[in-house]
Amino acid sequence: MRRAVLTMVIAFVAALAGVAIGCRLLMPTEPQASDIHTLVHQTIALDPAQAVALDRLETQFAATRAALDARLRGDNARLAAAIEVEHRDGPRVTQAIDAVHHSMGDLQKATLAHVFAMRRVLRPDQAATFDRLVVAKLTDTGR
Description:
By secondary structure, the chain is mainly α. 83% of the residues lie in helices and 0% in strands.
């Protein structure tokens, strides 16, 4: 029984390491525009001032997102270390899970603040289209 549990824990830690390595090697290193930012530029006819304002918001959000992503990666690394030490759902693992969830929540809150900031740049007719894009993105099950 112990051998099976140990094998599962090692497999889980190896999987986490594989994901971390894959993300570092395969993910772009430069901040990329968010999907919704790209959709807005492709779908909504923006005037030049709106385009500049949205680009400025995207640049600001990229820095915020990078910091929150880094914090989340650190929390995931601490979770992996806690699993490696405890080999069970112990207090360190529980604490690390809570930290991951907190970071994920902060990222989601920052993303929504960014989405609402983008919406404020738009005219009412554009905002209606934007709202449909956001709802479609949030309910997209193709991912």
